[in-house]
Amino acid sequence: MHWQFAPQADAGLTASLAQSLGVPSAIAALLVQRGVTSYDQAKAYFRPEWSGLHDPFEMTDMDAAVDRIMDALAQGSRLMVYGDYDVDGTCSVALMAGFLQQFTDQVITYIPDRYLEGYGVSWVSVDRAQAAQIDLVIALDCGIKAHEQIAHAKTLGIDYVVCDHHEPGATLPPAVAVLDPKRSDCSYPYKELCGCGVGLKLIHGLCLAMGLDPESTLAPYLDLVVTAIAADIVPLTGENRTLAYLGLAQMNQKPRAAFAVLTEQTKQRPLQMEQLQFHVAPRINAAGRIKHGQHAVSLLMEESLEQARAMAQEIETWNTQRRGHQETIFQEALAQVEALQEQQASATVVCGHWHKGVIGIVASKLTETYYRPTVVFTEHEGILHASARSVSDFDLHAALEACSQHLIQFGGHKAAAGMSCDPNQYEAFKTAFNRMVAERIEAHQKTPSIRVDATIELREVNPKLMRILQQMGPFGPGNEAPVWAAYAVHETGYAQTVGADNSHLKGAWAQGDSAAIPFIGFGWAHAQSLMSARSLVDVLFSISSNTWNGATSVQLMVKDLKKSSVISTAAEEEY
After folding, report:
1. Contacts for 425-428: CB closer than 8 Å, 24+ residues apart
2. I need a labelling partner for 354 at 20 to 30 A (CA). Which of 83, 467, 497, 513 fits?
3. Domains assigned to the chain
4. How far apart are CA 492 and CA 227, in angstroms?
5. At a CB cut-off of 8 Å and minimum separation 6, what does 517 contact?
6. Tell me, what DSSP letter sits at residue 279?
7. Judging by beta carbons within 10 Å of its beta carbon (0-12, 13-18, 19+), is residue 47 exposed, middle or buried?
8. Which 8-state DSSP code applies to residue 280?
9. Is 522 helix (H, G, I), strand (E, B) or coil?
């Protein structure tokens, strides 16, 4: 693991900010590194408010989208709210349908079947919209490349409003309105919204057009938005960070029934992004992976706690099945990589008769294992379908676009994508993709790295620092939890493996004569041999809290560690 230190913060700005805010210089330096250099900027950073959200009508086509939906409501038209089968898509559908159902009973929801229809606006859905006498479809988290389907629907008298956040092609689909901040002709100030975020901006626009107060009207939907943000791993900067901050407040104060039951067993309170990403999101996703995404929408829209609990228990069963499929496929994919010596190629491309619902997770695990762009194919009804994942800022979408002559279709963004391919084109795609990655990938993208914010002495780590750091959340891409480096620390003699499979490491570190601070290293049991009172190590960690028997204390979360390289053997013997 390469330790990549962030540029050192300007000393003058750091000192000035520390004085004006009354915070330790270590905190001020972090803020300066993140572009926060004044009292007013710090206030907006620590306490994001509704006033920080942009005017929805700055988004291209917002006027047309709002007018068309307002007209549909006035005419009593039948509406279909359509979305992808992942967390972002199902949360988007629950959000939009929940809002519209306040004004009309002519709303139906639709999630495509992952296996029978595939990703995006399906031909089957157009036929069903016609059969249901739908006048307007609002497509969320998809639709940006559904040119043929939307054009066909138009001939049937069905209009579309598209709310997407994926990269558009050279032309846009013939919808009444296409809301996508990534449109080249869209001047909306923030480009990194998730699909649910774009849907929220549409509702924001509708609120303004209807004369409703956006803050009070939209607040109940923010738990859906923050869950989508967490699951889609979009940057936690700008408007996303504001929405996540407000959404976590809603989630912790007054969550909808679905989130109340999904987080009942979660010990961490208040809930943070990590609990949404690693506990809530996989369960919502399990419905679309194993059964059907409509089950997730039904759960997210259920108002009864009793009914929501029963639905969540069923989804938990599917999530258990998902984990079983995932591990089996991952082991088979590993064997294929080794047998075909894929690990020697520029990228990892594997194919098998695997469960389509979990190949995205397997692609992520293979990427972590071999650290190279990865594509995992599976065959379904004579067509190969794949999920792809990237590494360290390598532009996966651009690489796939350069190989698109071998694909039936593809879509996604820089870090992740999906595609389909004729089996006869598989080898040609594999060769072309490997060549494209080899030509474009840079040396630093071939090695895992971790960003380190600053070096710190353990004597500087205390409850006050921990409390201020916690207020810098929510954390995620673009606003990562600060990572610190400490050199020549020693274990105080109590390191032990913990967890059901003893895969984690727990103990306490001291530095020189500093007080010992507890640490936990998830997945770090293999490093126990380095842990002794006479061994010095250099460590990377984030600073968190641990609550036990009502008492909260500082805890270090291990990110990386290695035998110390800066202390001599003679000095080491001092300990």
Report:
1. 426/351, 426/377, 426/384
2. 83
3. 2-11+450-572 (2.40.50.460), 56-249 (3.90.1640.30), 340-446 (3.10.310.30)
4. 39
5. 458, 461, 508, 509, 510, 554, 555, 556
6. I
7. exposed
8. I
9. coil
43-61 tens-digit pLDDT: 999 999 999 999 999 999 9
pLDDT tens digit sequence for 388-441: 999 988 999 999 999 999 999 898 888 889 999 999 999 999 999 999 999 999
Instruction: Give the residue carrying structure tokens 């069923």.
Output: 314
How would you write 440-483 as a 3-class SS string?
HCCHHHHCCEEEECEECCHHHCCHHHHHHHHCCCCCECCECCCC
Q: How many CA atoms lie within 13 A of 130 on its CB side?
A: 13
Closest by Cα among 89, 145, 136, 83 to 110: 83
- Segment 301-352, tens digit of pLDDT: 999 999 999 999 999 999 999 999 999 999 999 999 988 887 777 889 999 9
Report CA-CA distances (Å) from 370 to 273, 443, 522: 27, 15, 20
> Which amino acid, 571?
A
CA distance 282 to 524: 23
Q: Is the peptide bond before 474 cis (omega within 30 degrees of 0)?
A: yes
Rounded to whole angstroms, how far apart are CA atoms 271 and 472? 15
Residue 544: φ, ψ to 5° = -130, -175
Copy the structure tokens of residue 47.
């306490």
Helices (H), 267-342: 273-275, 281-290, 294-301, 305-339
CB 327 within 8 A of CB 365: no
| Beta strand spans in 131-214 (E) | 136-140, 159-163, 177-179
Provide DSSP, 73-140: HHHT--EEEEE-SSHHHHHHHHHHHHHHTTT-S-EEEE---TTTT-SSS-HHHHHHHHHTT-SEEEEE
Task: Please enumerate in sequence order all residues whose Cβ is within 8 A of that of 534, keeping only pairs 6 or more positions apart, or say none.
Answer: 490, 572, 573, 575
User: CA-to-CA distance for 277 and 289, rounded, in angstroms?
Assistant: 16
Q: Do the strands 348-352 and 374-380 form a parallel or antiparallel pair, or are they unpaired?
A: parallel
- Rounded mean pLDDT, 64-77: 98
Distance CA 33, CA 401 (A): 35
String of DSSP letters for 218-268: HGGGHHHHHHHHHHHT---SHHHHHHHHHHHHHHHHS--HHHHHHTTT---
The pLDDT value recorded for residue 495 is 85
Q: Which helix (H) or strand (E) holds 524?
A: none
Distance (Å, whole) CA 396 – CA 420? 15
Q: How far is CA 236 from CA 34, 196, 312, 541, in A?
A: 12, 14, 28, 20
Q: Is 5 helix (H, G, I), strand (E, B) or coil?
A: strand
Residue linked to tokens 């601070």: 517
Angle at 556 between CA 282 and CA 572, to 5 degrees: 135
Q: With cut-offs at 50, 70 and 90, classify the pLDDT of residue 568.
A: very low
